[in-house]
Each structure stands twice: as C-alpha cells, then as structure tokens.
Write a structure and sequence with these properties.
mainly alpha; 26 helices; 6 strands; 6-stranded parallel β-sheet; globular
C-alpha cells in the first residue's frame, strides 16, 4: 500500500510540474503525462508487471468515457446524415491504408504475410483519444474537416472488432473463418437488440428517477452505472469497451438528459484520459529506443506519410484541398487500439516479442508527435493551402462603405437580417466558429477571428467602413474591442449594445459614437406598440413587426 501511494504521489508531482512548464511553451499536457509515465516506469521498473496491466485497464476507460461523450453528440438522425462519411470513407480509409502498408511491410521490409497483415491493419488505425480530445477542446469538431475526421474515427473503432477476431482466427486453427464470423454476427445482434430495446428503457428509467430524486450524486452514479455497464456488456460479447459506451451515448443523445450527462462526466473523462496517456509512457523502453532509433524513425515517418497521402486523396475526392490536408494531418498517426492488437498478436505467438516491442515503440512515438501536429494543424496546413478557418487569418476583403458586425448571437443575427433587407453591405466577425459557419450557411460574408487584433482590423478595412456594430455580451470584450478599433482608426463610428447604465459608465471615455441600451429600447418599443394598438387597434401591423424581430 505504501509503495502504491508513493508511486501515485511522485506521478502526480512530476505530471503537475511538467505540465506547468510545458504549458508555458504551449506544449500539450498529453506530452507531460506520457513523459511522466516513462519516468515512473523506469524508476519503479513497471515493465512486464501486473501493475502495468491494471493501469492499462484504467487508462482504457479514459477512451471509453471519450467515446461515450462522442455518442452523446451523435444522435441517430445525425449518424444517418453522416452514413457516407462513416461507412464509405471509413471503410476505404482502413482498407486502402492497410493495403499500401501491407505492400511496404511485405515487399520492402521482408516480413511474413501474417506479420504484414497485423502491421497493416494496426497502422491503418488512428488515435481516437488524442484527435477527439483536440477536436472537442478546439471546437473544430463542427468544422468540415472535424466532421470527416470524427466519422472515420468512428468506423476505425468499429473496425477494431473484426481485426481482433481475425487475430483470434489466425491463432486458433480449430475454428473456421465462417464460425468466427457467425459468432461475431450473433454477438453483435444480441448487443444491439438488448441496447436498443430493454437497455434503452432501463437507461431512460434510471436517468428519469435519479433526476426526480434531486440528488446530484445519485444522477452521477446512474450515469457511471450506464457507461460501465454498457462497456462490460460489449466486452463480454467480444467487442471493445468503447463500443458499448458509444452506443449508450447515442441512446442518451435522443433524450433530454444529454447536456447534463456530458457536463457531469467531463472531469472523470479527463482524469481517466490522463491515466491512459500515463500508461502509454510506461511502454517506452529508453535503452531499446536508443538502440533502434534509426529504424524506428524511418518506419514512423514512412507509415505516417503513406497513410497521410492516402487520406488526403480520399477526402480530396469530394472536398476542398484545405479540408483534405487537415484531415490527413489529423489522422496520419497510429492509434491506441494498435496496442491491444500487438499485445494479442504477441500473446498468441503470431508475431515475435521483438517485433511486437518495436511496433509498440513506433506507435508510442507516433502518439507523442500527434499533439504537436494537431495543436498546430492550421499552421501546418497553411504550407499547402490558404486557410479559411484559422483564427485571425483573413485575406483582405474587397469592400468599402460597409458595416462590420462583431458577434453573431441572437442580436447579431437580427442586425444582419435587417441590413440585408435594407440592402446595406456588411461583414461579420466572430470568435465563435459555430456562429461563423451558421452565418456562412445563410449566405453572409463571415470570418473567424478577433476584432481586437490589428491584422483582422486591416483585413476587414475598418477605416473604409461606415460603422462598427458590437453585439457581444461581455463588458471586458467590449472594452478591448472598442479600444483596439479606435486606436487603429480613431474616426471609426462604433455603436455598442449595452445592458445597463453601469456598462455605459465603464465604456465612457473610449470615444464610442453611440450606445443602444437593450432593455430601454425594448421598453420604448413596447410602449410605442401599446399606444399604436390603443389608437388604431391594428393588431396585424404589430404581429408583422414581431415576426421580423423574431427572425
């Protein structure tokens, strides 16, 4: 017990210090956890110990909770819309990448057919844990490349099942391929039938009654029961833990509880993911890496290059070059499920222990490189194509005598609609990518960025605009933006929406041209309409005006 507490204490201390230092250099915390795992593994000699197996299991549940949250955001209707992205793109990516990698392993590196198949299938998978974490944190999950990446990752997670079954078949000469496929189909049918019939009713019942009890810990306990129970059920039927959690998440996505469920489990997911990345670090053998450094780097570079090029070609078929490049960068690494495949292949004596250790090391290094790549994905993509979704990277617009709308929440949308009806040209700037995408869908000229940045002010040609309308809610944001705009061009006509007289006082002295008090203007409009109705009884005019505002 004392030794376990000591290991936990030292691990937390090293991880905390490392991540504080790495944060200052804008390096992902994932690297801190991996390095911590490597240090602890070498200090306490974790290699080939039972402690490491337990840690792997704990870490795997980090991926389980991550897949559960993805399921919460993928209702059945949304999955139907993404069926081509998931099943066609996913299948072609896994099969195509595996085919090319098989050819390289077999012909270039002279591996056996069986070993080449294992390598090809493992290297075709990407890291769900790292890529999805980044996409959710950066909000890129709603971008076109984000949707395509998530769709392929979902299929890859499904593909793990037949890959593991194939290894079992290769190791077991007693069962035919037909028997293996029949058993898998039967198990899959039972899991899906149970989850979507009795399981769905149990989930809804559990969440409903735990909510009515008005005890937060009871609701959280119910959620954890659902996640872990669904994971164990899937695992016992021969599938991955994460598949069961993903299905449970999809079921809850159809209920009214999905937002609360996701917020309640967020911290648990992050802690368990930390344990997962820590366990990745324990697999790094420093001495072996030093000994095989040259070949490890060659195999790593070759695998990521081949896979990246294939994904680029696949996505470019129906998407622009920007989305294809970013998807390729996001998914070119080797994923965490490869560890399970290599471990099973080693235990079944399908590949040698030495080859398995080499492949695991390549996979670990791939996952170490990945955070640097995804965190700088726009910068890397900009070497190949002009970026649209990179924050504050805006090509100078060809406009003058236009209005600049800052923010595209409810007020910003109404302003845009009014200006459109009046035929007044305008451009929208927002730091909310979802709002930018919505504005683009409506046909507006909208850009992702911050109006307090000088390059953005220059690109939007503030000095040639007729006015700048601020619809943002935060007082701090209003101050920063107004000061930046007026410092850049003192003659800018700035109009700011305020919610109180205190806000007006805080903004006085900045040189703002006009304030619009939201509550006061609403009150004036209500009185005006009331008098108009009293005088003329013209209810139709009032309803038509109300319809305009609600748009």
């Amino acid at each position: 017990m004392d030794s376990i507490l000591l290991i936990i204490f030292i691990s937390l201390a090293i991880a905390s210090v490392l991540n504080i230092v790495l944060k200052k250099f804008s390096v992902s915390h994932i690297i801190g956890y991996i390095i911590t795992g490597t240090i602890i593994s070498n200090i306490f000699h974790f290699n080939d110990s039972e402690k490491l197996h337990s840690l792997d299991l704990i870490g795997e549940f980090g991926i389980v909770f991550l897949m559960f949250t993805i399921g919460l955001e993928l209702s059945f209707n949304k999955l139907k819309k993404m069926k081509e992205l998931v099943f066609f793109n996913g299948f072609v990516q896994v099969a195509g990448s595996a085919l090319f990698i098989f050819a390289i392993a077999y012909y270039l590196f002279s591996q056996t057919i069986t070993a080449s198949v294992i390598i090809a299938l493992s290297f075709s998978l990407s890291s769900t844990a790292i890529v999805l974490s980044y996409l959710k944190k950066s909000k890129d999950v709603v971008t076109p490349y984000g949707e395509k990446s998530v769709a392929i990752l979902i299929f890859q997670d499904l593909a793990v099942i037949p890959i593991l079954l194939l290894i079992s078949f290769l190791a077991n000469s007693e069962l035919s391929m037909g028997d293996v496929l029949l058993n898998t189909l039967l198990s899959a049918t039972l899991v899906i039938l149970f989850m979507f019939t009795l399981g769905k009713k149990l989930i809804e019942w559990l969440l409903h009654f735990s909510t009515n009890a008005k005890l937060e810990e009871l609701f959280l306990g119910s959620v954890l029961t659902i996640v872990i129970g669904a994971s164990i059920l899937a695992h016992e039927m021969g599938f991955t833990y994460s598949l069961g959690a993903f299905i449970a998440g999809m079921i809850i996505a159809e209920t009214n509880f999905h937002v609360k469920v996701e917020s309640d489990i967020a911290s648990y997911k992050d802690i368990l993911l930390g344990a997962f990345f820590f366990s990745i670090g324990t697999k790094i053998d420093i001495a072996y890496f030093y000994q095989e450094f040259f070949w490890v780097m060659i195999v790593l570079a070759l695998a990521m290059l081949v896979k990246g090029l294939f994904i680029f070609a696949l996505i470019r078929r129906k998407s622009n070059k920007s989305d294809a490049v970013k998807t390729a960068i996001a998914l070119c690494q080797i994923g965490e499920f490869s560890f399970a495949i290599f471990s099973l292949a080693i235990s079944e004596n399908i590949i040698s222990y030495e080859l398995g250790s080499f492949l695991i090391l390549v996979t670990v290094l791939s996952m170490i490189v990945t955070p640097f790549m995804v965190n700088n994905i726009y910068k890397l993509a900009s070497y190949f194509v002009v970026e649209f979704f990179e924050s504050d990277k805006i090509t100078p617009i060809d406009a003058h005598h236009h209005t600049v709308i800052c923010g595209f929440a409810i007020v910003g949308r109404i302003v845009a609609k009014e200006l459109t009806e009046k035929g007044i040209p305008f451009v929208i700037i927002s730091d909310n990518l979802q709002h930018v995408l919505l504005a683009r869908e409506r046909g507006y000229m909208a850009y992702f960025g911050h109006l307090d940045k000088r390059p953005v002010l220059e690109s939007l040609k503030i000095e040639q605009s007729t006015s700048v309308i601020l619809t943002v809610k935060s007082l701090v944001s209003k101050k920063i933006i107004c000061k930046a705009v007026l410092d850049y061009f003192p003659g800018a006509k700035v109009i700011v929406k305020i919610n109180s007289l205190e806000e007006k006082k805080a903004l006085d002295g900045l040189g703002i041209n006009a304030f619009v008090h939201a509550d006061r203007e609403t009150a004036r409009l209500l009185v005006k309409k009331s008098i108009a109705l009293d005088n003329s009884g013209n209810r139709d005019e009032f309803e038509a005006s109300s319809d305009t505002v609600s748009g």
